[in-house]
Write a structure and sequence with these properties.
The chain has 108 residues and is of the alpha+beta class. It has helices at residues 34-44, 49-53, 57-63, 75-78, 83-98; strands spanning 13-20, 23-30, 64-65.
Length: 108
């Protein structure tokens, strides 16, 4: 019988390198539980354009953290960030939470 405890999302964080307009930096990212990812995907598929436009900000706010796993930013702050930084945050979010980055996002 499968041991579901082996597959719980871990609070372990991963350090990821990012590059924004030629400047290198690092962020910490944690893997989210399935419910948070399902919510993110539901937002992306919504018929409501306002919901789709905001898709992912909640998931990013939960996933982008400091080295101790504490939130590094907020939903409201993420909405005000430069698109180049946001693109990199989405890339590392995808790497940690799906195992791959979306090739259309590229690298900032």
């Amino acid at each position: 019988m499968i041991d579901f405890k082996k597959y719980k999302a871990t609070p372990k964080v991963q350090r990821k390198d990012i590059t924004v307009r030629g400047e290198k930096d690092e962020v910490w990212v944690k893997r989210l539980p399935a419910l948070d990812l399902r919510h993110f995907h539901a937002e992306q598929m919504s018929d409501d354009i306002a919901v789709r436009a905001q898709a992912g900000f909640t998931a990013l706010a939960k996933s982008i953290c400091d080295a101790d796993g504490k939130p590094a930013t907020t939903y409201d702050e993420l909405k005000t960030l430069d698109a180049d930084l946001l693109r990199e945050l989405i890339r590392v979010f995808q790497e940690v939470n799906t195992g791959e980055a979306d090739p259309e996002l590229g690298n900032a």
